[in-house]
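Our consortium's second objective concerns turning raw sequence data into structural hypotheses that experimental partners can test. To show how far this objective has progressed, the report includes one record in full. It was chosen at random from the queue rather than selected for favorable results. The single chain below, 260 residues long, was entered without modification.
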Amino acid sequence: MKSSNRKLLQRYALLIGAVIITVALYYLFDDHIDLLLDESTDGKVICTFIDVGQGDSTLITYQDCAILIDAGDEDAWPAIRKVFRAHKIQKIDLLVATHPHADHIGSMDDVLKNIPVDKIAMSCATPDTLAFERLLDAIDASDVSTIFPSSGDVLTYDGIMLQILHPNSDAAYDNLNNYSLVIRLVTPYGTALFTGDAETSAENEILTTGHDVNVDVLKVGHHGSSTSTSASFLEASAPQYSVIHVGIDNDYGHPSNKVL
């Protein structure tokens, strides 16, 4: 990263492009935000929240490991590619499709077509949509292996863990949002929670199951919709910092005043 095009800020809340964030330390660019969980002698854990408008896409990097959670809508690939180039990403170790809504998987086929991906993690929902069909076609055309993790599973990469808190493997949910993979990132330097579009009923299930949701950073659920981020879930997670992926002047009224 070039020092000439970055700003170092401390304890400041802002809206940039499509990301609202309140953090202690981050690097601000015109199309993404790099949030440092901590610096260490053996590298940095960086969560990069990519401006993809009304959608989600987050890159996690640590040492030689790169994990991409969601890929925005069908127009998001140029923004994602720009971030890959900025971080010199040559390969994705894990690609995560939290759930098959178009604003989360819309450009995932472009990711698979343009950069080597070792593994893709998906929820078990299988809707009949164009975005999902494009993703399945891209998976079939690539060498990527596919997994369907569920509550209680743990994925480990280069000393960091991804704890799967949701969904339950044998449950049926009322809508696609509640099939979202909810992932707690655990590193030696900090923790983060990625909730997809999971709504309050899914949050309550996570709390009832007894999962540890306490984290340093919370990716607020469903773009700050009032359907997610209940008071009890927020109290249990107790994040120091929070991030909302949201499109400016979107048609949904996100984020809701209740959540803010």
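The partners drew two points from this record. The first strand starts at residue 7 and ends at 9. The longest helix spans residues 130-141. Both points have been shared with the crystallography group to help prioritize constructs.
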